Protein 1
Amino acid sequence: MTALPRICLGCKRAFRPRSGERHCPACQGALNRRQLRRRQASGKRTGSTRAWRMLRAEILAADPICVYCGAPATTVDHVKPVSKGGAELDPANCVPACASCNVRKGAGWPRSGNDYSNLLGGG
Ligand SMILES: [Zn+2]
Ligand SMILES: [Zn+2]
């Protein structure tokens, strides 16, 4: 009894399965790598780390007022977005913000971070 060749679901080429695989070794390896990468990415999302949660809680406890509109702050916003090189865990780069201002700034806040330097510097 010889194992019959099977057509790989990925590349449609014939291969000899060792057990019940439906992909050739090359495609199976690619699938495994993709699953691994997805698992790594889900565990490393911005805003979900323990350090960030602690920093956010400290900032909201110290000054729970939105720097943009003065409403009660429920979130912490990065003055310089992390995506643009801002330090995610630097307290000097984090300001308390209400949810609506945080969303609005994320969608394109018109002002620059320099406008808030007086707010950040004052104790
Ligand atoms: Zn294949
Ligand atoms: Zn606000």
Protein 2
Amino acid sequence: MLTTQEQRDAFSNDGAVLIRNCLDETQLAQCYEAFKWNVANPGPYVFRKLDGTKLQTHIDNANPAVKGRYDDLVTTLPLARIFQELWGSEHVWYFAEEIFAKEGGSSGRGPWHQDTANLPWAGPHWGNAWITFQSIPKKNSLEIIRGSHRGIQYDGSTFANPDDPTEPLHRDGTYPRLPHIDKDLAEDPNSWDVMSWPVTPGDVLFLHPRSLHGGAAVDAECPTRHTLVLRFFGDDARFRCLPESNPRYARTGPLFKEEMAKLNEGDLFRSPVFRQLA
Ligand SMILES: O=C(O)CCC(=O)C(=O)O
């Protein structure tokens, strides 16, 4: 086994677990090369709404031009096997990548959110492998609310309003508005159970994408964070229709729209477009 019972319990109960020294130098270098290509070649889902604001972050998602490269790369990494163990799933598929680049020491925290507000996903067998290429202190790392993958599904954040990170994505009332977690924490540091870890290159944070999570700010001490997120799913992963109110996200979410249109509420999440790894 690549994981301990303690790590499997942590993923299941808390929604996240950090596994240290998960990738070797070669694997890490290959991931970083792919990340750098991604940054230099933005795809159709590159996110520019934070450009010029205090939250400026280069975010890109599921770039079709680099799909083949990641589909091959993930066959050489231990991540699928680790998720197989964390979930207890017989099979594992690779979904796609997302990249986050914070530079210049002045980008504020990425809004708290659940990926399942933006993407049509349900079920326990989903996972993000959060891979960061710099050493990051705890205060600048990804933060996750313990156990929130099993809690309320909130509306998403538009990620477009630096003054209100809870500005709703669907705003039709299907899901409650996101709580203002930073405001709550400023008033009472114990109001939310926040998990985060310092990371060094090679460590991988495995999180369930329904967990409430947000990337902490960078600062003078930690000016750069380059993060590659690789997403996977397993046997008990299902399609869940998103609200229809926001045209960009209506029913299927923005990614793999044609494939997603073939799925109905509650269907097993399966499509030949996703590489099977186990
Ligand atoms: O790294 C970040 O700032 C955010 C990561 C994230 O949202 C994700 O892994 O889905």
Protein 3
Amino acid sequence: MPTTGKVKAAIIGSQFQADILAASFHIMPEEAELVAVTSPTPRHPEELAEKYHIPRVFHDYRQMLRESDIELVCITAPNYLHAPMTIDIAKSGKHVMCEKPLCVTLEEADQMIDTCKKQGVLLMYGEELFFTPKYLKAKEMADQGGLGKIYLVKQSEKHFGPHSEWFWDVKRSGGGALMDLGCHGIAFCYWFLGRPRITTVYSQLGTYVHADKTKGDDDALCILEFENGAVGLVENSWARRGGMYDRVEVYGEGGVTYADLHMGNALPTYSEYGFTYAVEKAPTTKGWSYPVYEELWNYGTPQELHHFARCVRGKETPKGTGEDGRVVMEVLYAAYASAGLGEKVKIPYKPQTKMPIDEWLTRKDK
Ligand SMILES: NC(=O)c1ccc[n+]([C@@H]2O[C@H](COP(=O)([O-])OP(=O)(O)OC[C@H]3O[C@@H](n4cnc5c(N)ncnc54)[C@H](O)[C@@H]3O)[C@@H](O)[C@H]2O)c1
């Protein structure tokens, strides 16, 4: 593998998040070039390749892994495929960037971490909230002591539900809104506070509007207690109308800060006729909408990939790791168990079921 020059990167998957990663490589091209894409669906990887000028297209990722010059492979496939793909990528000697959530079982998380270590490759966890400029600003102020001792960190992500059918199938996703969106909030609170140990989790879940589509939760409240005395409050929904909502609030003994990821980067807009695109998950562009400029930059995904490419070259150390993803997975099991038991659950938590969501589903109707 080369030690200088642009990192040769590839993506597995060609739809929603794959498009975001491909666009992000284009936005910050200094450290990496996207040379290949794989997806089993006919025409889909070809379309992504045409849109972003990606030279190589595959329909089987194992075939792509035989390309000896590819150094970094980004996984944007459904959650249940993250672990087998990571293990195959690592065994081919390539570095891994895995989208959130890390996988669907804690056992898989351990296997992913162990295999990457044994193979001497990086396992980088795709949590772009660690790179979101507005949220980084909040952390910078808190780390400088501007808010005094932090006692509450709140992160919310809400919209009306995912775009692809596999998210609704808990066997392939591992869980509902808590798993899909709560993984961001749990990681965020943990990272924001400087990764103190999480001691307990309490969670309240419901399936309020999408019971026809899923056994999973479509609304979730989750409270985390940290060893340093701070509390995390993670609120998520697939039931919230009106498009994307992503927000943090940080409360300290000496101050407070609020950051809305989209508002403040948005143009309050009224349109009688509509236009092509406002922002992720916006239900319409007619009437009032809030189109965001530089959307991906505001999310932090280009900065995240730039950083991961630098990690491949040994210039930086990963800010999002397999271990972070594992912490989130353990908390997800405990949070689903808490909702099932109706009580606070202590961490460390030893899973009682195969997937996180089963901790809730097997208890909730008893
Ligand atoms: N970081 C974020 O904010 C963020 C946002 C969206 C999605 N994600 C994550 O990215 C992953 C993908 O989500 P998405 O929204 O892009 O889903 P999607 O349904 O839009 O795309 C999934 C892609 O995986 C491909 N795929 C399925 N089986 C495959 C296989 N065997 N080999 C190769 N490719 C295969 C599909 O063909 C498709 O291209 C999920 O884990 C999701 O949680 C992260």
